[in-house]
Amino acid sequence: MPPPHHSIVYQNVQSVHLKEWFAETLAAYPELLSHPIYLRKLPTRYSTMRAQPVLNWQFWRRRTRHYRVDFSSHLEVTEHVRVRELPREVVVGWFAHELGHIVDYLHRPWRGMIAFGLGYALWSRYMRQAERRADSIAVDHGFGAEVIATKHYLMDHATLPEHYKSRLRKYYLSADEIEALVTAYEEKGHMPDIVEI
Asked: Is residue 181 a part of any domain in this protein?
């Protein structure tokens, strides 16, 4: 009997590499097997990549909920970061981070998802904890080196606007913090305690 595989729906994604890299990354997240996952290319203006539940009838039940990872095709964003042109390690690190968000959503009932969305949008501390938790989950799934590569790429990227880099420093774990997490994980054999939100 063949091993179970994830249900992936690609929307407006032409790049064979992105499809392959997304499927490879998702394969390391067995807890997402029972959930359809969409990878969509959209003209989102304020974020390069984001993960969210799909708002359909399945949203109301955790067990049947669908999720999506969107990446931007908006000119203002792609002027600086064209996802399809990034190195494999950077894209995989980014996908791993976004899938970390989805793992974080799994235990939340629909009211919890709405509360999460409000907290994320309204309180910077809540947003910071959510982003750091997604990084930690990605490291826990074996993507420490890739997440570090993503951090280095974005912080060292010459044309990325300073306000974007400042936001990265404020809300996300740094490459050094990720390296410390990886080291702690390797020494202890399990992920160190993560702040619950």
From this structure: yes
Task: Determine contact, residues 82/9, Cβ cutoff 8 Å.
Answer: no
Longest dimension (CA), the chain: 52
Strand order in the sheet with 37-42: 8-11, 37-42, 67-72, 49-53
**Closest C-alpha among 141, 142, 153 to residue 83:** 153
* Number of structural domains the chain divides into: 1
Q: Which residue has the tokens 């020494």?
A: 187
Residue 40 pairs in a beta bridge with 11, 70
C-alpha closest to that of 138 among 42, 37, 15, 51: 51
Residue 196 lies in a domain: no
Yes or no: say if 91 and 158 are a contact pair by the CB < 8 Å rule: no
Q: Has residue 58 been placed in a domain?
A: yes
Residue numbers of the domain that contains 15: 8-188
Model-wide pTM > 0.85 = yes
111 in any annotated domain = yes
Q: What is the pLDDT of residues 16-51, one digit of tens each?
A: 988 999 999 999 999 999 999 999 988 766 677 899
